[in-house]
Amino acid sequence: MKVCIGLSGGVDSSVAALLLKQQGYDVFAMFMQNWHDTEGTLHGDCEWEEDRFVAEMVARKIGIPFYFIDLSDQYRQRVVDYMFDEYSKGRTPNPDVLCNREIKFDAFLTAARRMGADMVATGHYCRKEVTTGPDGREIYHILAGNDSNKDQSYFLCQLTQEQLSAAMFPIGDIPKPEVRRIAAEADLPSAEKKDSQGICFVGKVDLPVFLQQKLKSVEGDVVEVYDAYYDGNEQYAFRRRIMDSIMEDGTPANLVTGYISEDRCVRSVPGNPEHEAGCDRAKSPFSLERVAALSDDELMELSERIRYDITFETETYRSGKHHIKKTRYKANPYGCIAGRHEGAQFYTIGQRKGLNIGGHAQSLFVIETDIEKNIIYVGEGHTHKGLSRSCVRIAPDEMHWIRRDLEMEVGEIRRYRVRIRYRQPLQDALLIRRENGLFILFDEPQRGITPGQFAVWYDRDEMIGSGVI
Q: How many other CB atoms are found less than 10 A from the CB of residue 301?
């Protein structure tokens, strides 16, 4: 079997190539150049050239053919342009997910097949299994990597059965330290190379500077929202009423999450067979009967972000010994104008860096952005009410089922484990399929849910599907 390894110059793809060669495959390496521009990047102008040089040395060391391919036009059109468009709408895309779907397992796969490859291999930390379905057809399963600190299955959440049929992940069952050890023992040139960071094939970037290539910088207000705003807010009252009504034990629902560290990725471990889909709880805290009774409109409203409408009036006053007339904003019990920003499209919900606003006991977090009015709304502390949500919606045309044989029917409710960003510990949730979309109702409220990101659902270790929030 002829296998093309996508050799990036990093240690993971290098060890993947070495293992394939040792296992007797007919292996050749191909290095992708997907980006030329350096505006907004935080490293040297020729970082990709260094990566190519290391990749070529690795291929020579292993003893496999090395080829170069320029896919920068496809990458710009299918990944970067999408990224700019999403940010312009106030959504936060994940370019790495798009890169895998549109480039590595599409454009790159096509090029590899033209060179005779049967399969394409990458250095992703995930696993693939194959079973036979009732109809005799093969079913491809993608599972979390064995190293829970490096599981990268999330980035492959948009792959199809056809793409998976041609994919190989040689290091998916190997812990990262062992990968480093194998590379050092084989004296591979990439053995000590640091892991890449930032946007796939672009590198680490100053995001506002990078986005300013196409999105204009326009100053606007940063509005801090006080807790009192939610006391009389109809949307929040509706959220409270609905969530309380569906609790199984009749206790008030928790609408605010505590701070959860996300510096470790938690992988489901098979345990009690009663734990449906590998969830931590054998039973949902919600009454399935009451959840099923919710109307489509109620679920839609429950999944909506809070809409903020705080107006500020000005007043004149005299200041100093010369009684100079000045203008200031009147005190408002619901919030204040806390600062200025350079463009609402450059910020994302849950963000705390880059606001440059002091004078607070706890960090300020972005809780909402209004692109039309160019306003950023912020709240103080991890437990601010505006930072938490319990329900999100995936639009019908944004649902993607890796396991097409497990696609939910309208009206069906299932229990899965879900993550809404890479390296987030898996969260227990109900998935509710309706005509107007797929709703994800989390057992515990989630912090910093961001439109444009991918929600991914798992049955134990297996990734079942995904969708754009």
A: 15
Indicate the SS3 state at residue 57.
Answer: helix
Q: Is 200 a catalytic residue?
A: yes
The residue annotated as part of the active site, out of 4, 99, 126, 265, is 99
Tokens of 414: 């299932």
> What is the dihedral angle through the alpha carbons of 164, 170, 174, 178, rounded to the nearest 10 degrees?
-150
* Residue range 189-208, pLDDT digits in tens: 998 878 776 555 555 556 66
Residues 6+ apart with CB under 8 A from 160: 402
Yes or no: say if 170 and 20 are a contact pair by the CB < 8 Å rule. Answer: yes
* Interhelix angle 296-303/234-245, nearest 10 degrees: 120
pLDDT at 256: 95
Longest dimension (CA), the chain: 90
Q: Which residue has the tokens 């449906």?
A: 276
Model-wide pTM > 0.85: yes
Q: What is the mean pLDDT of the chain?
A: 89
CB 79 within 8 A of CB 44: no
Strands 2-6, 119-121: parallel, antiparallel or unpaired by DSSP? parallel
pLDDT in tens, 270-283: 556 556 777 766 68
- Report the alpha-carbon distance of residue 364 to residue 223 in Å, rounded: 11
The topology under which CATH files domain 2-211 is Rossmann fold (3.40.50)
Residue 342 to residue 168: CA distance in whole angstroms: 44
266 has a pLDDT exceeding 80: no
What are the angstrom distances between the C-alpha of 287 and each of 248, 277, 298? 4, 18, 16
In contact, 247 and 405? CB cutoff 8 Å: no
Quick check: 40 and 3 in contact, CB under 8 A? no
Cβ proximity of 74 and 102 under 8 Å? yes
pLDDT of the residue at 283: 85
Q: Which of 4, 126, 157, 200 is catalytic?
A: 200
φ/ψ (deg, to 5) at 101 = -70, -45
| Per-residue tokens: 23 | 């296992």
Q: Is 391 a residue of the active site? A: no
